[in-house]
Fold this protein.
Amino acid sequence: MTQPLLEAEGLEKHFEVGGGGFFGLTPAVKLRAVDDVSLSIMPGETLGLVGESGCGKSTLGRLLLRLIEPSAGKIRFDGQDITTLGRGAMRAVRRGMQIVFQDPYGALNPRMTVEDIVAEPLVIHGKPSGEATRREVRAMLDRVGLPARAMERFPHEFSGGQRQRIGIARALILKPRLIVCDEAVSALDVSVQAQIVNLLQDLQREMGLTYLFIAHDLSVVRHISDRVAVMYLGRVVEVAAKQAIYGAPLHPYTKGLIAAVPASHPSLRSRGRRVRIAGDIPSAINPPSGCRFHTRCPHVMPVCRERAPALLETAPGHQVACHLTEIPPG
Amino acid sequence: MSLLEVQDLTTAFMTGRGEVNAVEDVSFSLNEGEILGIVGESGSGKSVTALSIMGLLPSPPARIAAGQVRFAGQTLTGLSERQMQPIRGPGIGMIFQEPMTSLNPVFSIGDQIMETIRAHERLPQAQLRARAVAMLDKVGIPAAARRLDDYPHQMSGGQRQRVMIAMALACRPRLLIADEPTTALDVTIQAQILDLLMDLRDEFGMAIIIITHNMGVIAETADRVLVMYAGRVIEEAPAARIFDHPRHPYTRGLLECVPSLTEDRARLVAIPGTLPEPARRPAGCRFAPRCAHAEPSCTQAVPALESLEPSHTAACFRARELSR
């Protein structure tokens, strides 16, 4: 069996928030942005990561690349434990893993030309800037659908979709194996979003890329992913192949999330016909006891308030963290 | 008679490149209790249309260059700020995409709702308070009486949008304009807010204009749909017809380019090219450079909205020959 390209085991990230105050007397509190997350991504596949704002999906994406340091847990990339690698060794590993951000404008230096932006990773990894690098940049721009004359221009001269192409070119120039797409198409107009989604899929096929596709748009995630992980308040509550997640979801949160997606036709209006998840997402600073979803769950039982359900396999490749699907003891 | 009539509305902005029409020749009408969806992408002019109706665009740089807006028989275009005041609120209420920037952070939400009511009605303090609590209750804020003294930062994004709706509803408007009301919200909260808007329409019979870039939001709410592209209305029809028989190639593209939640598609049908900037719009049909069906003649003149069926219009030279 092939081994996963990326694996996380018991990954956690805690942030200290607050604290200080008058004479530094207010104690800081711990925010568990990512709490005991284990998952794996196979080479060449796309794992979609969905959840609402504050669920920790972006933090998890950055943790997996070690752009931020985990508080606990292990990360393995291509079989190698990278959790505690030093700077130099990590730099070498990072050639193989890149990220594309949501806001291409915020992620591109406005004072650099497109050529310098796309060439920068090469230069950082020791390639001398010269004709060979120029050629490589030109080929990459062509590959993402930008003309060669884009090289001398600056980010502000481009539309949102074109800027995202620049961001993708920069991420791909080192020929990485894994790309984390963090809401990479969320800020784009829908007519342009489809172009970028198609581009990402073409590039995956041609270059054998593996994607972690983080997004809140459930339709786009369904389209691009092979498997999907659903997060809620720092935890993964369900992982399965996309057909199972969308066709036969098991976790009440996954069900509610899918039921909340607006209809595709006026005759399919959801008002009064689909179960709504009530209320708001609770704060991650003081999350609910037991199952974190219990305050909004339509099927809440006494046990849900007391004990957090473990992420267990209910069918091959389908994992759920819910007391409803846990096999009763005895 | 229609509640709202917009006729040949053209709103221009003074820019570094001279005067540019953000919105051009927009006409539509709206009946009491009807929900009109206006859908479009960036630069389509959908928000400027709403702000023009409300008289909320700063002049300069903006000015209504042509056309008129009539609300309940009264012409709004040309009214002074003072004359507009009594119409905003009891006549037309408006909610925006980002409730945090529309709420004042230094006043409690109760104060803000009561101020809105006070601007239009003279009521004793106790009754003002009771009305504010009733409004918060109506929009689904739990323990409304206790939340009245909360500040905007103490509420979640969804709750803030509910407060904005409560403020707009406090004056019982006959028309509510909702500009991307759920765009900044999570999908579970979006569903709650859309349900709320529909409930309020059913209960109060107010008309709603819902402005969005999301065809799903249109499908969930609209009775009739206006599709805008690059400042112009390019198609108008009852909601079901827009989804079943779109006649403009752009509308068709807009429906096809979003992935489905139930069907597998190997590849998305993207619309090539990018949205034109207002100052650099192409001549003739503005969609022509991105249109798979464009002919040389499409760039010669701007196509007018043409009636294709009763209550279905589209602005495309080839609409008749292209439809099956």
User: Anything to note?
Assistant: Chain B has one domain: 4-322.
